[in-house]
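I trust your eye. Have a critical look at both lines of this record:
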Amino acid sequence: MEQKRLVILGAGESGVGAAMLAKKQGFEVFVSDFGTIAGRYKTKLAEMGVEFEEKQHSSDQILNATEVIKSPGIQSTAPIVKEISKKGIPVISEIEFAKRYTKAKTICITGSNGKSTTTMLTYHILKNAGMRVGLGGNIGQSFAAQVATAEFDWYVLEISSFMLDDMFEFKADIAVLLNITPDHLDRYEYKIEKYAASKMRIIQNQTADDVFVYCADDEETQRCLKEITLIPKQYPFSIHTSLPQGAYLEDQTIHINTNPKEPLTMSISELALQGKHNIYNSMASGIVAKVLELRNETIRESMGDFKNIEHRLEFVAKISDVTYINDSKATNVNSTWYALESVGSEVVLILGGVDKGNDYGMLKDLVRSKVKAIVCLGKDNKRIHEAFEDDVDIIVNTFSAHEAVQVAYHLAKKGSTVLLSPACASFDLFKNYEDRGNQFKAAVKEL
């Protein structure tokens, strides 16, 4: 039988992980990256004997593929992807590819906001309960690399809309949809309907034996659900309405009911994650844990001692009675709304970066009531000035994390909060949101 040729576009974590698994499965593998490949990934590819190229896509090396695995960051409109599609070569995601080679079951978590936190919390609960569980997708080590090298019964996977766009046969055993709010609309012709349709792919191929966990309070999710017939078992969650199955909030207590014989209740004051948005995240993780029939005691303990991920509402320091919070992972307006909703008043807000077609309107009320000054951190801050010039007295432009922190320090009064929650992507001034968050933390520590 002829050896299959697998071409991988993008040599980041997911691409190199896919190469590891493909090599193990006996494929002929070629990796192509239009940018520069990081040193550690080059070393790994060379060690495996995988041929690769960087700073270009060579058509003669790519268009003879049996199948192509595309990094989620590469748009389907990229010239090389159009060429591949024209030739009728299938293009899939690393997640789709990896799932073919594992019997492990998957918990797949998506949503515009909260997916990293919910993925980490779910993994934390399952691991503490003694399950053999892996963590992957948009977070940590690639799913494919783990399928190639580890043995797990379950995987908790953070799944982005870009990944879902290249998933076709894949099925989640437990699918979690947290919310659908405008994000990445530049990839979806600025149409929320197209972005929402992408998110709804999380439940494709599910059967009556599978599980779908979703937010009953999310308007866009509800609109989508009216248009389809749901096959899997459903467990919605809400903070406004009591639900017979799923999870709801009543008298500051979460009620999780997947099995009427053994419901779980927990006061929100016991949760490690505070703020309204984190009640939703905790409910979603709690439902998954109950579906897997973990003990209430274990779930309560894990939901009480969880440490949140770096760069998501991360406490940095308290200096001269001013609290500094790093929420660099807030790359869209909705995330910043959640951040403002969860902190006190007297906020100096550090905002800005690469605008993805943001509508700042939803922030206006919170900015008016809580924000005393806005420090812009980005190359082009015009739209932020236009959006908030009537709502705050002070809007200042800065062009580095150090400068932003220095300005915020002078604007903040005792008892106030300096909040880095940019609502924008970071790549105008930084490598990525982690780099932005790390530079912010370093600047705060220099104060």
